[in-house]
Amino acid sequence: MNYYERVENVTPQREHNVRINNRKEMEINGVKEIDSFDNEEFLLETNMGYLIVRGQNLQLKNLNVEEGLVQIKGKVYELTYVDEHQQEKAKGLFSKLFR
C-alpha cells in the first residue's frame, strides 16, 4: 500500500448553527458542553469555540446532548465567541491600561 492508497480515519466535524427568533428564542447546534449558565449568561463550548450568550431572563428551554442542540429563551442582548489567543491579547491590553 502506498501513500495515496492509505485511508485515514477522519471523523467529520458537526455543523454549528445559531438561529435567533425575534431576540426571544435561540437554537444552537454543535454544542459540546454547557460550562455554566444563569438567567443573564450562558457559557457554551461549541465546535467553533466557546460561545457566550448574554441577556435577560434567559432559561434553558431544551437540551439534546446526543445531537448537541440547545434551545434558550429570554431576551438576547449579546453573542460573543471567545478564542484563546484573543483572550491573551485582551488581557495584555487591559493590563497595560490599568497599571
How does this model look, in words?
With 99 residues, the protein is mainly β. The protein is built from 1 helix and 6 strands; from the N terminus they run ββββββα. The chain has one helix at residues 84-97; strands at residues 18-21, 25-28, 31-37, 41-46, 49-64, 69-82. The protein has a 6-stranded antiparallel beta sheet. The mean pLDDT is 82. InterPro entries: Spore_YabP, Spore_YabP/YqfC, YabP_sf. It holds the Pfam family YabP.
Quick overview:
This is Sporulation protein YabP. It comes from Pseudogracilibacillus auburnensis. The protein is mainly beta and 99 residues long.
What structural class do helix, strand and pairing data support? mainly beta
Number of strands: 6
Globally, the shape reads: elongated
Low-confidence stretches: none
Ends distance: 61 Å
Strand percentage lies at over 45%
Task: Record the SSE blueprint.
Blueprint lengths: L17 E4 L3 E4 L2 E7 L3 E6 L2 E16 L4 E14 L1 H14 L2
Antiparallel strand pairs: 1-2, 2-6, 3-4, 4-5, 5-6
List keywords for this structure.
99 residues, Spore_YabP, mainly beta, YabP_sf, Spore_YabP/YqfC, Immunoglobulin-like
